[in-house]
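seq:
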Amino acid sequence: MATVGLLAGIGKLPVTFLREAKRLGERVVTIAVVDAVEPELAQESDQFYQIKITKLGSILKTLQREGVTEATMLGKVTKEILYGNLGIPDWRALQFLRRVRDRKDDTIMLALVDELADIGVTVLDQTRYLTPLMPAPQVFTKRQPTAAEWDDIRFGFALAKQIGALDIGQTVVVARQAAMAIEAIEGTDACIMRGCALARQGAVVVKTAKPQQDVRFDVPAIGLTTLHSLLEHKGAVLAIEAQRTLFVEQEEVIALADQKGVAICAVSAESLSR
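struct:
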């Protein structure tokens, strides 16, 4: 039985990975690196630890002690933790922060990949167990986007790809082909709520992978929390990049979207050009 490490943040995605890995016969050691992770992680993992991301030395020692040679990083750990108060970093974390040349997402994550490699841990492709959650182009909901909304999806898709190329974010909110919000340090949900509030109603949310997406980390994902953020300020459409975005809690999300009259679709550059 292989031992897989799971560095878990907030959301359902770590639970989905855990269950699939265990179904395939893996032993899973989970380290919750932030508070408020899903309770199922503690209940279902073979071993479970709560160690804040600022205690990097403790995380690495725990992975070594548990015999972990492969690991994945899943769940929300927003960049604002670098500017917040999570306690005093340990020596390894301080050295890590001194070495990174900037605070861009990819810079930080690639440096963390190197830290894990130093102790003999390979970071897995996040989609290795989760490919079924990456749907092909389609409309999931009963309501189809209108012609004007399709124009906003095309505009938002191109815009999201541009901010992704700059390693800024993966999500944009648009209305009538004007940018209402662009995801930055605040994360997807705050971006959606801010943009939908500015649009007042009828906003279109588009989430894509970065053109240079490294599938070992930060693969875009949506779920119930994403939809709730859109609904809070009467957003109308949620569009994701087909086959490059993880769609968790699909049944619940689609059912709620149908109830509220929201359109959800997966699109690609090819499907949008037809």
